[in-house]
Specification:
The chain is of the alpha+beta class. Helix content is about 45%, strand content about 20%. Among the domains are: about 70 residues, no CATH class; about 110 residues, Immunoglobulin-like. It is built from twelve helices and 17 strands. Helix 5 crosses helix 9 and helix 9 crosses helix 10.
Length: about 475
């Protein structure tokens, strides 16, 4: 029971609140420290996400040899043939004549299936009068497949569906003619063969057949064939599109623009990361702007809170040793040389150098003319400098060394700040925050006990004064009665 100023007229609630404010100062400091660590945790994780994105992009682009093998192919008749590089390591040129295109074998049932009355393609085979349960299909370039059905349960739709799925042919029912048509999924010489009692019932065993044929062409004077119109030669994919007995000329060359685009993107991403990391370790720390409590926020305007917290959140990673070490390792990695024999290859050999402006903190600058020339003359040289793999450090490309530095740092940050969803016990800052939660909980319990004690003390004082007032009133009444 709490009695607030009934006898004394004092604002007991305000008095106790002011007294508790002084007691809560240590708790406020712990809460502020916890909030600051949570901001620091968020910043660490944000940096770690950016580092992971950078690491993944490096692996998927400039560390892949295929990035530097991009080629453009000039063709004299693009209507007849398409040629593109898949994994070619050398140039490709010559002539091509196309005598025949590859075609797929076809088969049409000899007679149509009549759907009378209420019967449809979803009626059972038994309802349609189709007697048979087994069909065997042999298609060019594929294994023979035998399928078994239940005429009392299976329909024309389910039969065709299984054939399409399992038999290396594409089959459909033509509602106009009532016939079933099949086309081999593989082109090339051969025909479709059908047997079995269900094949006979569907009029396919004696149906009309068209044999498939191979593509026939002359490549640089060599007369040859392929079962498909699309095939590969020396890492180039060739797609024949129409007959052209007149020789078609073709030649390949490095796709300079595409390779250049990949290298420029790498440099841009690197410079952006350098700028972000340096901004974090140089961000000012405003110690006079501590995290706001809920009571303080209640007394401020929204814009005031925003401006205050902008300064309070600043500097969480100022002079962070892990990030400083990463920046140094990144610069060292890209300033190195590749190879064990002279002359060793460096970034400058492909037109990339560190900025001479010390304010750029080691950003890279590209001489696009020189880089373009190197790509045009020898794209593999760019690969050797940047992405080359190797067991020894000297043999590895500079980007591989850069990625190692990034991945090592990510492990350190993860051990300190964890990942999203990680349990607090599994990383350093999480354990500290957990200890703070326990400390705050104990402090709040003590504060509640102190506040309860104050209320009890004030309540007893109120009750004592109330009794004194009652006794005084009784005395006044007694003395009044004697007069």
């Amino acid at each position: 029971m709490r009695i607030s100023g009934l006898a004394t007229g004092m604002d007991t609630e305000s008095i106790i609140r002011d007294m508790m404010t002084a007691h809560r100062l240590p708790l406020d400091k712990i809460t502020q420290r916890k909030q600051y660590l949570e901001w620091q945790l968020d910043d660490y994780r944000s940096i770690n996400r950016d580092l992971k994105s950078m690491s993944d992009n490096l692996f998927d682009t400039v560390m892949r040899q295929g990035t530097y093998l991009a080629k453009q192919v000039n063709i004299s008749n693009e209507n007849a043939v398409n040629i593109r590089s898949l994994s070619a390591t050398s140039e490709f040129a010559g002539t091509l004549s196309i005598e025949k295109l590859a075609t797929a074998a076809t088969l049409h049932s000899a007679e149509g299936i009549t759907l009378e009355g209420e019967h449809t393609v979803n009626s059972t085979l038994q309802e349609l009068g189709i007697v048979g349960s087994e069909i065997t299909i042999q298609a060019p370039g594929a294994e023979t497949v035998t399928l078994t059905f239940d005429p009392a349960k299976d329909t024309l739709t389910t039969v065709l569906s299984r054939i399409n799925k399992e038999a290396n042919v594409t089959a459909f029912y033509d509602s106009f003619t009532g016939k079933i048509a099949m086309t081999s999924k593989n082109s090339g010489t051969g025909e479709i063969g059908v047997s079995g009692d269900l094949g006979t019932a569907l009029k396919l065993t004696n149906g009309t057949k068209t044999e498939g044929q191979n593509a026939q062409f002359t490549f640089n004077g060599l007369e040859t064939e392929r079962t498909s119109n699309t095939f590969q030669i020396n890492g180039f994919e060739i797609t024949l599109k129409e007959v052209s007995e007149a020789p078609i000329t073709f030649s390949s060359s490095p796709d300079t623009d595409k390779v250049l685009e990949s290298v420029v993107k790498f440099v841009d991403d690197y410079n952006k990361l350098i700028e972000e990391l340096n901004a974090k370790i140089k961000e000012p720390r405003y110690r006079d702007f501590q995290p706001l409590s809920d009571e303080q926020k209640a007394e401020m305007k929204e814009k005031e809170i925003e401006l205050w917290e902008e300064k309070a959140m600043s500097g969480t990673l100022r002079n962070d040793s892990t990030i400083q070490s990463l920046l140094q390792r990144m610069r060292t990695a890209l300033n190195g040389a590749v190879g064990t024999t002279d002359p060793k290859l460096r970034l400058s050999d492909i037109g990339i150098t560190p900025s001479k402006n010390y304010l750029d903190n080691g950003k890279l600058v590209i001489d696009e003319d020189k880089l373009r020339q190197v790509i045009s003359e020898n794209p593999n040289k760019v690969y050797e400098v940047l992405g080359k793999s190797g067991e020894n450090e000297e043999d590895r490309g500079l980007v591989g060394r850069l990625r190692t530095a990034i991945d090592d740092t990510r492990k350190v940050i993860t051990a300190r700040a964890g990942n999203a969803g990680a349990v607090n016990d599994t990383f350093t800052l999480g354990r500290t925050l957990k200890q703070m939660d326990s400390q705050i909980e104990r402090f709040q319990t003590r504060m509640q006990q102190v506040e309860d004690r104050y209320w009890k003390q004030f309540t007893r004082m109120e009750m004592a004064i109330q009794r004194a007032n009652a006794q005084s009133a009784q005395l006044m009444s007694a003395f009044g009665g004697m007069m």
